[in-house]
Each structure stands twice: as structure tokens, then as C-alpha cells.
């Protein structure tokens, strides 16, 4: 019995060391493979950029909830931010600055920050640039104009990190919308536009993302979009 315990502990130790080395970054002696041709550091256990971004995002969004029809569950907004970060990690995109931007991607649009203020708060200009690129701060424009300008800006920048961040955000949004629609609600019960308008928005983004974001992330976007279409068809909501 003692020998079995010893072997088990040795195996566990080997597994622990393997995982520990995998997640050790430059400051700790190892690095993740870099997905994008940028100078951004890979995610590490020694760098506090991501935890600091999480704290800043949690405070900024603390009193915000996800949209839902009256009487339905409205999770804390931080859950959406975490899901966006998870989608990027799931696609093997592990740069500190990108993951930090995932947690902060709505702070300019929804919390009164601008790019210079965010750069100062998080002490990282690249994070602020990423967040600014996926934000729609000018709410005086019509919804349709904002969506068009958003797509045009992303296409013009053609930055793989920005496109991936946007794709993860829209995947999370589509997933939430599909979940609520599955309960029999129309999209216009919890958003400002009806199903045809929302579908046109996501279909246009689908064209933008195809071939420009990692395949695994794009597949998740496609799955969420297919479910969104299916729910629209089931409810007779298509244009």
C-alpha cells in the first residue's frame, strides 16, 4: 500500500511540474508559442496585467447586468467578460494584452472611459488600443451607422488581435441571444432591434471574420450563428 501511494505521488508530481512549466512565462523561464507576429508577451504566471485588468473591469461593471426580458435571469456583466477571455484562451490565444483587453473590451463603450484614461489606468497603451478598436462610444449615430462604421474600422485595421477580440465578443453575444430565444422570446424583447436587423449585422460580421481569425474561434462563432438562425426560423422571425 505504501508503494502504491509513493507511485501515485510521483505521478502527480510529474503532472504538476508539466503543467507548471507550460504556464511559466518569460519571467519564469519559459514562453508560450506566440500566435500573432507582435511583441506582446505571452500569458505568464508572473505578469499581473491580466489580474489587474480583471479587477478594473469588475469594479467598472459591478452594477451592470446582461440584457434579458423581464423576469428572466440577468447574470452579472462580468460573466460576459470572462466568457470572451475564455473563448480567446480556448483558441490558444494567450497574449497578456489580448486577454486583458477581453476583460476590458466594454469599459470605453459602457463605463465612461476613453482610450487615454484606460491606458493610464491599466498602464498599457496596447490594451487601450485594442479596447478602443472594438468600441462604439458615439451613441449619437444611428445603430445602423455604428454597425457599418464598426465593420469598416475592423476591416481597415485588419489586426488579427482586434478581429479575434471582436469575434469572441460577438460569439458570446450570439450565445446569450440564442439561449434567451430558445425560451420563446423575440430578439426585440431584450435588444433595440428586431431579428432581421440583428441577423444582418451578424451575417456581415461572419464575412469579416472568415479566414481572419483562428479556426477554432471561428467555428464557435459559426455554431452560435447557426443556433441564432435556427431559433429565428423556429419563431418565424426571419425577414
Radius of gyration: 20 Å
Named CATH architecture: Orthogonal Bundle
Question: Which residues form runs of ≥5 with pLDDT under 50?
Answer: 1-39
Shape: globular
Number of helices: 11
Topology as H/E string? HHHHHHHHHHH
The CATH superfamily name is Hypothetical protein af1432
Give the tally of structural domains: 1
Brief summary of the model shown:
Residues 1-39 have low confidence and may be disordered. This protein has a single domain, classed as Hypothetical protein af1432.
Would you give an account of this structure?
This protein has helices at 2-22, 49-60, 77-90, 96-104, 107-110, 115-122, 125-133, 143-157, 160-181, 195-209, 215-234. With 239 residues, the chain is mostly helical. Helix content is 62%, strand content 0%.
List the helices and strands and how they pair.
Elements: H1 2-22, H2 49-60, H3 77-90, H4 96-104, H5 107-110, H6 115-122, H7 125-133, H8 143-157, H9 160-181, H10 195-209, H11 215-234
Helix pairs in contact: 2-4, 3-4, 3-9, 4-7, 6-7, 8-10, 9-10, 9-11, 10-11
Amino acid at each position: 500500500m505504501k508503494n502504491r501511494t509513493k507511485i501515485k505521488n510521483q505521478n502527480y508530481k510529474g503532472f504538476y511540474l508539466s503543467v507548471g512549466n507550460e504556464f511559466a512565462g518569460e519571467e519564469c523561464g519559459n514562453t508560450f508559442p506566440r500566435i500573432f507576429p507582435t511583441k506582446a508577451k505571452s500569458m505568464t504566471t508572473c505578469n499581473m496585467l491580466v489580474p489587474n485588468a480583471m479587477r478594473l473591469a469588475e469594479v467598472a461593471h459591478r452594477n451592470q447586468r446582461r440584457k434579458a426580458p423581464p423576469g428572466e435571469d440577468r447574470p452579472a456583466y462580468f460573466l460576459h467578460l470572462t466568457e470572451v477571455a475564455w473563448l480567446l484562451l480556448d483558441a490558444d490565444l494567450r497574449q497578456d494584452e489580448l486577454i486583458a483587453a477581453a476583460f476590458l473590451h466594454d469599459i470605453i463603450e459602457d463605463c465612461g472611459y476613453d482610450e487615454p484614461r484606460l491606458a493610464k489606468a491599466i498602464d498599457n497603451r496596447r490594451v487601450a488600443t485594442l479596447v478602443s478598436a472594438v468600441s462604439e462610444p458615439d451613441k449619437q449615430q444611428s445603430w445602423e451607422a455604428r454597425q457599418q462604421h464598426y465593420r469598416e474600422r475592423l476591416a481597415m485595421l485588419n489586426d488579427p488581435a482586434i478581429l479575434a477580440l471582436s469575434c469572441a465578443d460577438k460569439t458570446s453575444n450570439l450565445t446569450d441571444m440564442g439561449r434567451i430565444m430558445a425560451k420563446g422570446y423575440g430578439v426585440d424583447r431584450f435588444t433595440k432591434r428586431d431579428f432581421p436587423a440583428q441577423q444582418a449585422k451578424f451575417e456581415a460580421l461572419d464575412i469579416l471574420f472568415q479566414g481572419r481569425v483562428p479556426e477554432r474561434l471561428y467555428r464557435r462563432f459559426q455554431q452560435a450563428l447557426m443556433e441564432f438562425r435556427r431559433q429565428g426560423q423556429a419563431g418565424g422571425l426571419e425577414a
